[in-house]
Amino acid sequence: MDRKREFAEYVSALAETLGHADRGEPLGDYCRGLILSGERKSIEPMAALVAPRGVSAKHQSLHHFVAKADWSDASVLSAVRREVLPTLGAIEAWIVDDTGYPKKGKHSVGVARQYCGQLGKQDNCQVAVSVSVANERGSLPIDYRLYLPREWAADPERRRTTQVPASMEFATKTAIALAQLQRARAEQVPSGVVLADAAYGNDVDFRDGISALGLTYAVGIQSSTTVWAPGHEPLAPRGYWGRGRPGVHLRRDPKHQPIDVNGLAHELPARAWRRIHWREGSAGPLASRFARVRVRAAHRDEVRAEEWLVIEWPLGETEPTKYWLSTLPQNIAFKELVRLIKLRWRIERDYQELKQELGLGHYEGRNWRGFHHHATLSIAAYGFLMRSRLTSRSKKNRVLRDPPLRRPPQPKNFIPRGSPRAARTSYR
Predict the structure, then answer these.
(1) How many helices and strands (H and E) does the chain possess?
(2) Is the torsion defined by CA of 385, 387, 388, 393 positive or negative?
(3) Cβ atoms 35, 3 nearer than 8 A
(4) Per-residue pLDDT tens for 231-246?
(5) Burial tier of 175 (Cβ tally within 10 Å: 0-12, 13-18, 19+)
(6) Rounded CA gap, 343 and 340, in Å?
(7) What pLDDT digit, counting tens, does each position of 73-94 carry?
(8) Which of 10, 164, 245, 342 has the fewest CB atoms inside 10 Å of its own CB, making it the most exposed?
(9) Is residue 251 very low, low, confident or very high in pLDDT (cuts 50, 70, 90)?
(10) Dihedral pair phi/psi, residue 189, rounded to 5°
(11) pTM of the predicted model as reported, rounded to 2 decimal places
């Protein structure tokens, strides 16, 4: 099918969720502006891309659509799933992560001094939590929400100024992620193993919440996490001695102690380690050395169910580099266990393409609605490009650099934004 026609049909399917027929045009223009080549994907330069002969009017239309129009992000994302997932194929994983956007100033919704993954340090930024569905062929974000720091959640004036909904109270990132998983489960999104890094996997309530949803997980943990090694567990509660109540708490003594996963890794025999190749990377095969062992997490001395502890310790390293706990089946093949754990790279690709190709972090407005509308439309554009790539005859799995759409013709005297003359000339 012609890509221009395919894009029109895709936008039409999404527009049915917007509530008003006149929102279909700005939806298409906004998504097209995100897809077209351009250094900045904020509203003004996108208006210049899609309507060079009427930038001012198009800027006003796009601004109203993204910052003020009352349409549902959840409904649009649901429509994106319906359009893209049949092409993506069987889902293997739900991947949880968060991403940060450096920000100058303090007035944009949710901005605070906090850890920013893009910078690799604490700085002024916004942070959002997301869930992507994925397999080896591709991935698609299905939920996305701004993390509202405690100082923002408790500040009525800042909430009012940035139009934060009254229902949005403070929630930790793990609580936000778990709510997203619950929503995906309720909407019957095809399920997969939940993957997350140690920022989420260290939270016992998060892991238990995943299990309560009937899902399996393979999540990162810190090296200091303690477990009961095979053949070890806490002592039974103290018995009844004729006085008082019988004991209810499990006990430890010098011979009954859990061990941190780093210590356990050092105690494993050489035969426990295997070199496993999990996929082909851009520079060749990706492989490392792994061990796995059945353990019970040591939390409040509860006797918890056995699960897999997976440890990565590359040759040449003096210490293990990564650890995971997983409730994937006991009979799963070792190589398959590693492959699924390593599928988390897909969300890193999502963020790379959403930020570098589609301007996910370029929104310049300050309010809650605009932040989430821009993200939803970025995901919608990404979904179209993902579907186009998967249906393309080319089998190369490249970053999306060549969008299947073209710019409209520019007027003869068009002045691009950012040129020396642009500061002295207003668009007509």
Answers:
(1) 14, 12
(2) positive
(3) no
(4) 777 766 655 555 555 5
(5) middle
(6) 5
(7) 999 999 999 999 999 999 999 9
(8) 245
(9) low
(10) -65, 135
(11) 0.88
